[in-house]
Design brief:
Oligomer: homodimer
Number of helices of chain A: 5
Number of strands of chain A: 8
Order of helices and strands of chain A: EHEEHEEHEEHEH
Helix content of chain A: 25-40%
Chain lengths: 234, 234
């Protein structure tokens, strides 16, 4: 299509230097997350700063904003740091929510820098790390058509959603359907891994895939946790 | 496609009784929102209950959950109640976040009840109500291909996104692009109206459209508000 002269300037993420295979570079392929952490406590600022300061970013790019924090990097590193952050929030024992947007295959924000056919990017599903903390979540997964013009990259929303839900059943986190979202429950690490795995799986056949996950931690309406079971392996 | 026998049971939303025109009934067409409100305060529960109790739901369907609250109904009523809720949260003077998922054209959760070609649904863009409260937000908009099989309902992601961003410029809320999201700022009522309008506009040509909006209120990193300007008309 013809570029729109009124479109915002596209910023080039670090690491997106021209490459023979754009799927090989997580940042070049636009693999990343935006995360909004909310802690229901008067001293939320200290709690959040503490949780964020202890994170091992393991090569991820981070840009902090007033609405969310951007994290860019490969799928395994993203799942690792999201699990660490969620666990740190849960361990404050305050009620907290975590809003997560995952995206792949469309670096460059409003205007994708990669044309259709630059992907998909095929990687192994990152493994969960159990935390002993309960999480309830609502999950949406979007295979997007805008970049799906090359052979084999056409999104099939229902096919892809079914595959992701089957995987959620395997991980034991699937709890059913809500209006517009899938309900997940279980160990926080498994819930996060479900969303990252679904997004990664669909990303094996579709270039541009986004996923949104809203996690609730330490809600007063959650089942009472059993400290013995909570800390143990399952 | 062949229904998957392992798929979750599809629940039929109230109001989705057979109709000659499925786009005429907001609930039958799956017009609704999921909302997660987080208040950074020790007495968040009282503050949220107070804010929710004062809402005029004006015929909207509400289902409260531990992760989010579902609201179903027409676009104008949704924007009205989201604006009221956001204003109530802002007036607590605590830092708060609001995570909103808007959806249309795919009632029935995982399995859409409407086949492609049942839409699109064309309605007027609901008008903003100014609140005098500043909001910063990140916005994503997804025209989805799964239901876009009928003539004239094929999503064109870039065309639709450009139209929505042009409208955000008209409303004065567009602030640029972040990784994976569009940044909006301004009066909370205008920010919410931008997202609802973009979703409604794209919904004039595409059946299944979702949109995600994360709003930050009363952040310590937000510009200091001028009480005189804040309460006045612009």
């Amino acid at each position: 299509m013809v570029p729109d002269p009124t479109a915002p300037t596209v910023t080039v993420p670090a690491g997106s230097a021209p490459s023979a295979d754009p799927t090989a570079t997580p940042l070049g392929f636009g693999v990343g997350a935006r995360v909004t952490a909310s802690v229901m406590a008067d001293d939320y600022a200290r709690l959040l700063v503490d949780a964020l300061a202890r994170l091992d970013l393991r090569g991820l790019v981070r840009e902090t904003g007033d609405v969310s924090t951007y994290l860019g990097g490969d799928e395994e590193a993203l799942l690792g740091v999201l699990t660490d952050l969620g666990e740190a929030l849960a361990r404050t024992e305050h009620h907290a929510t975590l809003g997560i947007l995952l995206s792949r295959g469309c670096p460059g924000e409003v205007v994708c820098e990669l044309p259709g056919g630059a992907g998909p990017r095929r990687v192994e599903l990152p493994a969960p790390r159990r935390t002993g903390r309960y999480a309830a979540a609502e999950w949406s997964l979007y295979p997007l058509a805008d970049q799906g013009t090359a052979e084999g990259t056409e999104p099939d929303h229902m096919r892809d959603i079914y595959a992701a839900i089957d995987h959620a059943r395997t991980l034991g986190t699937f709890r059913g359907s809500e209006h517009f979202a899938t309900r997940l429950e279980g160990d926080l690490g498994d819930v996060l891994a479900t969303a990252v795995a679904g997004w990664t799986m669909v990303g094996r056949s579709v270039q541009h895939v986004t996923s949104h996950l809203t996690i609730s931690l330490n809600s007063p309406s959650h089942p009472v946790r059993e400290p013995a079971a909570e800390g143990g392996a399952r």
